[in-house]
Structures are given as structure tokens and as C-alpha cells.
Predict the 3D structure of the following.
Amino acid sequence: MKSNIKKIIGFICLLGTSAALASAAPEPVDLVYTNPGQDCAHSVRLSWHTAEENSVVYWSKAEDAEFKHAAKLKSKGVKTPVEFHDGEQYYRHEAVLEGLKKDTSYHYKIVLDSGYESKEYSFTTADNDGEFGFLWTGDVHTHPDISIRRELSEKLALAAEKNLDDDMDLVVSTGDEVCYGAYYDNWQEWQNGYINRKVWAGIPGNHTYYDVFPKKGQEIVDNRWWCATQNPPDNGPEVMRSNFWFKYDSILFIGIDSIDTSHLNEQKKWFEQVLQENKDTYQYLIVYQHYPYISGFNGGFGGTNVSYYLWMNLFDKYGVDLALSGDHHVYLQSNALVQKKTAEDGISGTTYFVCPQIGDRSREMQGTINPSIIKSRITSSDLAYESGLSYFKVTKEGITHTLLDGDGEIVESHFIPAKRPYVEPKESSVLILIFAITALLIVVTGTLIIVRRKNKK
């Protein structure tokens, strides 16, 4: 029975890639994303499309269900700055919500001049206590004709959230959420999922770069469609908007666009600048991109074009804890590695991951596994429904990675001990300083007023 379903899905996939897609008209408010702010305890970044030029974001704490005490943020959109394949017309909006309180649930809606109101979207800020969970996904390839992909992704995300006792407010993706980046309806299909209630931190994949039925004969184009739907922190190298970094609780995340390697030198220079600027302000360092650092197929380092060779010296120098990647559709976890070898103490090196796919595009492993560097390697066909998804539980002592199969059942779990001590957020001392200065100003102002009154007498 399972093989028959597999054949049917494969046939649908074939139809989807061999015929032009029908035009997908944007909704009045469409493709709404809540991306991380640079400091996820106090800010998020929003991205959305509208059919009208002007819109207003109403946002408030979740307990303010009727938005009676909502803050307002007006936005004037830019008319179709990036053209999708079927010529959809829309207004592109970006906004940053700042001054948020840590460990607080918020919701927001978008209202147009015509009176149209979007549905509500929600998110929760980081609590900065060193204890939390986050989801890791990739290679879903959502397509409106193959809804099983997004539906499975939703199912596994709910299972992960339940296992983490609902302490999961961040989703990290190593790319390829959509099948073809150039098609608007692929993004609309993905928008129907759990991302509406989470802080979403994705990175471009090769499918995000795809224009499968190109007007000029190309397939892989550039990051234009990803940049037209996402609004991550604008702190990457000037040459590439699709690289960024952000802090979430005790983790410094660095997202790298690995599809376009023409700016690799600029990316490396920027990477070092980020680490120098944030020195001694985080406990864990996690880097993620789409193309694998280590080959998922053979459980090794592959050819010299594998990303491990491009980044290993910098990762070793700055002590990257985890390096997440995708693309190969099979699951892999390495030991903690330094210069292609397992770290002698089992702690000081970088643990490399490749994520399995979700849906119907399983792949078999090739070659011989290298047992000296690989902790775990699982072919997609070993996972139920040939799908898998991971989540991480973060504590001050270390990070526990857990892999789920397509039924939402735990396949395996591994603990990665911390290599740095927990760093208390500096916000507490900053707030104390601000309070002290404010109090001092009040005292000084009051004293001046009293002196002036006495002088007048």
C-alpha cells in the first residue's frame, strides 16, 4: 500500500514539474512572515504583501484579545519590486517591532485602507533564561498540488512542540521550504502552515533560487524571490542581503546563503566581524546554511567543493557548536570535529548536521560511512513516510538534539555538552543603569526647581 501511495505522489510531482502552473492571485494581505530581530527578546521583523498601497499593523500583548491597547505602525508598500513567474502584482512591506518585553506573547493583524483586516498572527519573545527549545526543519518543497508535504511538516512541528512542553517559539530552516521560489502559489501554500505563530528564521536554498519555467532559459537565478518574502536582520555583508545574524536567548545564530558562493570572501570577512563584535555575549554559536558541510550521502567530507573545506578553519577558530545544513534529504550527525578529526575531548569541536526531507523525495545513501567522524546516519527510507524533523532542547549544561520520524515518533536523541559557561544577559544591568540615570535626572531637575523658586522669593 505504501509503495502505491509513493508512486501516486511521484506521478503528481512529475505533473507539477512538467506543466506551467496556473496564476495565483495574491490575497488582500498575503505572505506574512515574522522574522527574528537582532535581539529576539526585544524585537521581531515583519514582512508582508498587500493588494493596496497603504496598510497599518496593529500589535499588542496576546491578552489584549480585542487590540484595545494596540500600538499602530503605518506602512506604505513598494509596488511589485520583484516579479514572480506569473506576473503577480502586489505591494511589498517591511517593518520592525522594537521595545518588546522578553518572554511575552504578542499578536498582530494588518488592516488596509479599504477596511480589510487580515487574520491574526502571533509570536513570543525569547525569555533569556538559558532554558528553551527550537525547531529545525528543511527541504519541505511545498507545492500547492502536493499538500502532503506541508501537512506532514505541520504534524511533526506539533509533535516537537508537545515534546518540548510548548516551549518552542523559534523555527530555524536550512532552506527549500518551497518547491520553486519564482512561483507565488508555492509561497502561499507554505504560508498556510505553523509559521503563522512562530518566529521564522529561514535561509535560502537552491529551490528558493529556482525559476523552473524561466523566460530566459535559466533555472537557478538568484535570491530575489527569497528577499521579496523575508525580512531578516539587515546586518549581513552589503553584497548579500540573504546573510544575517541574530541572538535568541543564549545562542548566537548566523545564517549563511550558500547557494551563491561568488561573495565567499566577503562572507568570511563579515563572519569574523560578527564574532568579534559579539565576543563573550553568548553561550552557544550555531551556524546554518542549505548546502551540506559534510556529505549526507556517504557520511564523509566528499570533494573539495563541500562546504566543510570552505569554513572549517573559521569554525575551529571561533568554536562553532553546531553547523546545520540540508539539501541531501538524508539525516546525518557528526561527532564534534576539529580539522577533519573527532575532537579528543569530544566537546571542543563542531557538530555537523544534515537534515532529512519532509514529504516524498527520499534518497538512499551512497558510499561507505566513515565511523571515525559520524555519530549517526539514517537514510530517508528508514524513516516512517520517508520524512524527518528535528528539535533542540537548550540548557545551560548543553543542547539535546532529537530526531522525529514521519509519524512524530522519536528515532534518536543525543546530548551535546556546552563548551562555554552560561552568559547572563547584559540587559538587566543596562536597565538598572537607565533607571539610575533617570532617577538622578529627576532628583537634579527637582533640586533646580526648588532653588529657582527660592531665588525668586
